[in-house]
């Protein structure tokens, strides 16, 4: 890393930079290709002329997708699941992580072990499925929120964050007569904003991406989150509702660009926020890594 | 005498714990919802897994159903699908592990050698990007790219690797390649973060001293860099082995079809079809329990061997 560099070192550096440049291109290309295809004419996409730049630029696919009420309804549902779900996540995770971060708590390590164990062993899909049905959560909005109220991994990350707060601060607040709940609210939480930001992101993205629970536990289409509607359009290629007014001979070609536009509409919020958020994510992973 | 003193001490320590617990009563109060959550949503289903040893009858409930011993396990082990499911589950995971695990370490090592901070952060940012795209969208892209008029067919035809456009997802011979290849794209950058964190923790003075002693970059890699991230590598390997039976089955559920069951159908997807779709609750609970137990045993075994061989372990 330091000192004089030989010819071999220079050669390595050049190859390394070239390799990483090529890798970066590969990381970006699929997303870029989808973006470019979604803005191209359906005929150009079908003939394979589109690669790096849009051909026959058109917003047609976006217009067709945005006319679909399924997408809007599902978008609204997802916003609810992300908002309400993440709020509950933050409350529950804080309530768990703070007491367990206090080293003098009798029984704390036993409770911690009980929580960690669930990361490595589960009763399986079917017992969980029957449990959810027994609890009356089946086909309700709450089924996407309550059974996902705490993630053991995130609880460990936040607990690690709380443990970095000096014990003396907490003790002195207690000597001043503050109870634990007050200490948490006015000493610990204000000092833990970066940790809470990481939690907010982890949970919000998990809710945004979640689809399996919705597929298994929801029957009403009006409750579907965005990802389930995307599954119909992208994986099962159910675009007939979108192409109702498209001439018959163009339907196949148009439904391809519709799928690309749908991907963009569903991913754009993440792509736009991504540059600002990724640093926090990386921080979260690193805190988790310390604990492991 | 001794006995009395012992009792007194026990008394005193019990009293101390009681006093502490009383002082911490609000902390215990805070824990109630979280402990309740794990009891209801994790431990209750673990108890519910006993239906694997019963013939579950929805009207009688879990406790009221009749015991049948190992009937469902035996049925599964003797079934035509058992060998295929076990093979697919293990192969998909092992292939993924064999490709993605070393690739993440290599990417981190290469990034670590980059001196230009700007270039490094651009490459890193792009490498995490796929991780943030939802699984459904990733699979949607795979479906579109690998169809008969998708970009993959066009590329391979123009390179002369295949003669005519192919619907890759309908061919069981291509499933593993597509599955592992797309997972590599999605996870390699993200997985490298943890190694980059470990690499940044290595003290620069070690490298300086090595250079003084005439070490070149290869020496530094072997004697400083790799030993510096060895612990991280071992721990992540244990964790990966502990989830070997999961094989990213949500992705399989989105990409497979009856024509690719031969290579794509794994234990978890089979549990989903037989249990959730066909309502064979006890039979699929047995398969799921089998899967969980193997998974957990693998973790315990990996942890045990790692502690003996490298003195690194999760617990």
What is the averaged pLDDT score of chain A? 87
The largest sheet of chain B is: 2 strands, antiparallel
DSSP strand content of chain B = under 5%
Report the span from N to C terminus of chain A: 28 Å
How many strands of chain A? 0
How many strands, which pairing sense, and closed or not: the largest β-sheet of chain A?
Answer: none
Could you state the CATH homologous superfamily of the largest domain in chain A?
Answer: MetI-like
User: Can you count the helices of chain A?
Assistant: 13
DSSP summary: helix tally of chain B: 15
Main location (chain A): membrane
Family (chain A): Belongs to the binding-protein-dependent transport system permease family.
Protein name (chain A): Carbohydrate ABC transporter permease
Subcellular location (chain A): Cell membrane
Descriptive overview:
The complex is a heterodimer of chains A (292) and B (315). By secondary structure, chain A is mainly alpha-helical. In chain A, 71% of the residues lie in helices and 0% in strands. Chain A is built from 13 helices and no strands. Chain A is globular. The mean pLDDT of chain A is 87. Chain B folds into two domains: 68 residues, no CATH class; 238 residues, MetI-like fold. Chain B has a two-stranded antiparallel ribbon with strand order 1-2. The radius of gyration of chain B is 26 Å and the shape is flat. The mean pLDDT of chain B is 89. Chain A: Belongs to the binding-protein-dependent transport system permease family. Chain A: One of its GO terms (biological process) is transmembrane transport. Chain A: Keywords: Cell membrane, Membrane, Transmembrane, Transmembrane helix, Transport.
